Every structure is written in structure tokens, then in C-alpha cells.
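User
Please review the sequence:
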Amino acid sequence: MTGSRENGAREPRRNEFGQEIGFALPGWTPRQPPPRTPMEGRFCTVEALDPDRHAAELFAANAEDRDGRNFTYYPYGPFASLAAYRTWMEGMCGERNRLFHAIRDKSSGKAVGVASYANIQPAIGSVEIGALVFSPLLQRRPASTEAHYLMMRRVFDELGYRRYEWKCDSLNMPSRAAAARLGFRYEGLFRQATVVRGRNRDTMWFSIIDSEWPALKAAFERWLDADNFDETGRQRQSLASFRGK
């Protein structure tokens, strides 16, 4: 389905000038942008963000983060009122190159987190996962891992993208740990990449590419299987163990 998996071997190629060039992508065509249709899992539903449906539930879920530490590395939040949060959400829903989603926990029926497809580039088959604000009601729960799996599955299996990016402040240790746990590979450090809240930010880049996805998908599905959880809902084996790590 995707170019680099179809190509097989990736030995360097040379053009008529003797210069090394990248491996061919026979049949590559631009992909479609991510749709707004919901993604259904066993633990959660990931659905396009809607201020009317989600603002109040997400504001209440974020209020469980008493000191607002979830927003330390973002240029926005925490929000003092539902009105302020809704205004922010309405602005984000209007952006052209980002598609925000709410993560709805199936056990409670409530929206408990936000994630976004960002930097969407259908022409080259690349998209970034960003704006991850998982409230305490979602953190360290199976639904949080499943939400990532569902968003990856859409990008690679449904849309045939080649690259899935993760970027974070180099000092954001939970985000770095999450990227590693989910199977992203570290690519490098962009020094003094931007300014956030009047302070420097060095940005770390991570990615998953299409040729890595089948093995990661299998690991996610084994981890998410009902047999991997005991009667209290605790995992029996870690996600990393299913990747052989």
C-alpha cells in the first residue's frame, strides 16, 4: 500500500551523473487528508473535536489537574473558565492544517483528552501527532494507549501515509518517555527551535515510518487484547515486551 514497503531493498541508487539518490516510490500518489469520522476502540472513541459536545466535559476533566502541570510545555492553558477554554477550542477547530480530536472514555462516556493531527502533508504522506493534553482521567489507562493506536492505524492503514511525527520540548520528560514507549524513534534535537511563554525551547523529533508500522501494530493489538488485562484492569505484560524489548 505504501511506497517504501513496496520498494523492498533500499540500497543507494545513482542517477545519470553518478550521484546517489533516494530509493524509488513506484506508483506513489498524494494521500487524502485525515477524515473527521470517529475511530472506535474497545476502551475509547476518538472523534473530531466539537466545542458544543466536548468543551464542558474536557474542561471538567482538565480541572482534575489541580496545579495545571499538563500545560507547562504548551503556549496555551491552563484555562481559568469554561468560556476561556471554549474560545480557545473554537479557534483550534478552525485551523486549516490541524485536525483536533476528543478522546471519549467508553467506561464513563465522557471526553477526557485531546489529540491533534498536525502539520498534515498529504503530498508527501507525512503527519504529526500533537497537542496531546490527556487529563488525569485518561493518563496511564488503557484508553490512552488505544487512542494512539487508533490514530496511527488511520494514518498508516486507512490513508497510506509514510511518516508519523512526534515533537516535544526536550525538557518534557513524560512526553519523551511516552514517545519511546509507543515505538517512536528519536531523530534529533532542534536547538533553540522556538520560544514558549518567554523561554527557550529545544525541540526533540521522533517518528514512525510505514515499514515499522506492521510490527508496532501487532504489538499494540497484543497489548490491547482482553487477555492481557487481569480482573482489576491491570496489564499482564508491558507494551515494550510485545516488541521484544
Notes: Helices lie at 3-7, 51-62, 82-93, 142-158, 173-182, 213-224, 239-242. Residues 30-240 form a domain with the Aminopeptidase fold (CATH 3.40.630.30).
